[in-house]
Amino acid sequence: MTHINFRIAFALSGALLLAACGSDMRTMPDNHMQKLAYMFAERDVDTPLPRGWRQLNGTEINYRFANETYAVYSVDEDEELLVMHLSDNGTGRLDADDDRESCTWNNLVDQLNIECDDTDMEWRIYTNGPDMIAIDLDEDEFAILRKRPGG
Questions:
Q1: Which of 58, 59, 84, 116 is the most buried (most CB within 10 A)?
Q2: Three-state secondary structure along 90-137?
């Protein structure tokens, strides 16, 4: 490697390291989620979902969300919006930045409803098997849901 090529490589490595250190750790955690975000970012919520996706019914919503913790990622902003933990007794909490809200939740037919101290959400939940997305019925926006350990 020539002396000039070494300097360029060193400078680029330094720039990449600085960019990595300064990046928000709450962004989409992997390429797969980034591809999901790209797939839904430009999609209108009223258009049919891609082949292989289906809507969860109330029983499936209860099964997948009771006593579980999910991170909710914005499709448009490419970052984690909040973490939600929903208990099987209809209570839960939302953690966003430095704010924690107590919640109650229920599912009606095909919709997840969450009512918190300062936030109310109505979502339809869709899956293709391993992945889940939500359509926020108030905001007409997609979000990616990713199960997290713990609570």
A1: 84
A2: CEEEEEECCEEEEEEEEEECCEEEEEECCCEEEEEEEECCCCEEEEEC
